[in-house]
Amino acid sequence: MSTLRNKVQLIGNLGQTPEIKVLDSGNKLAKFSIATTDRYKNKQGELVNDTQWHNIIAWGKNRRHCRAVRSKREPNRC
């Protein structure tokens, strides 16, 4: 049996401070959103800001890393 792993790195701005939840099993997770913005010029030469929001749920060691993220004003990596 093979194990499939995906790795995604989002660099952007937090929508809110990560919310830590404790499940009935005792496991913890962090929930938050990150906005990423792609800036480019369109065919008319106008600057376009294309912002996309990503809803994140982090578990295990990823959750522990995200717990340290506190500021909505600074770019964050998670």
Total strand segments: 5
Taking the sheet with the most strands, its summary is:
5 strands, antiparallel
Helix content: 10-25%
Annotated CATH homologous superfamily: Nucleic acid-binding proteins
* SSE ordering: EEEEHE
Helix count from the secondary structure assignment:
1
Which assembly state applies to the chains in this document?
Answer: single chain
Second-tier CATH architecture = Beta Barrel
CATH class value: Mainly Beta
Instruction: Give the structural class.
Output: mainly beta
CATH topology: OB fold (Dihydrolipoamide Acetyltransferase, E2P)
Counting structural domains, the number is: 1
The percentage of residues in β strands lies in over 45%
Residue-averaged pLDDT? 81
- Shape field: elongated
Rg from C-alpha positions?
16 Å
What does this structure look like?
The protein is mostly beta strands and 78 residues long. The chain has one domain (17-71): OB fold (Dihydrolipoamide Acetyltransferase, E2P), CATH 2.40.50. It is built from one helix and five strands, in the order E-E-E-E-H-E. Strands 1, 2, 3, 4 and 5 form a five-stranded antiparallel sheet that branches. The longest helix is centred in the last third of the chain and has 8 residues, at 60-67.
Describe, in short, the structure shown.
With about 80 residues, the protein is mostly beta strands. The protein has one helix spanning about 60-65, and strands at about 10-15, 20, 30-40, 45-60, 75. It contains one helix and five strands, in the order ββββαβ.
